[in-house]
Amino acid sequence: MFFDCRKDSEALHKGLGCCLRNVYDIQAMHMFIAQMRATVPLKHVGEISAPGLNVSLEAFKASHGINVSKNAMKVSQGFGTVI
Asked: Which one, 10, 43, 47, 48, has the greatest CB density within 10 A?
């Protein structure tokens, strides 16, 4: 299970020559569900904005809640509060 596995997949492929299989990408699934729930059918995935990790965790009602460390890091770096 990954969240936005594009960079991870690329690093594993370039560094070790291996490819991911049977991956459940939470971000991709969130975008798929958004497409299915859209009142007006979208023509391509580019019309759906990619959700952040905390948005997906909240949408899927993750038992452990959102990633509070992400917000703390963003605030400490001067980026404000991002959810």
From this structure: 48
Distance separating alpha carbons of residues 15 and 26, to the nearest angstrom = 24
- Residue 37's φ and ψ, nearest 5 degrees, are -90, -10
Looking at the predicted structure, is the pLDDT value of residue 47 above 70?
no
Are 57 and 75 found together in one domain? Answer: yes
* 29 and 45 fall within a common domain: yes
The number of folded domains in the chain is 2
Which range of residues forms the domain containing residue 12?
Answer: 1-50
Write down the pLDDT at residue 10.
Answer: 92
CB 55 within 8 A of CB 67: no
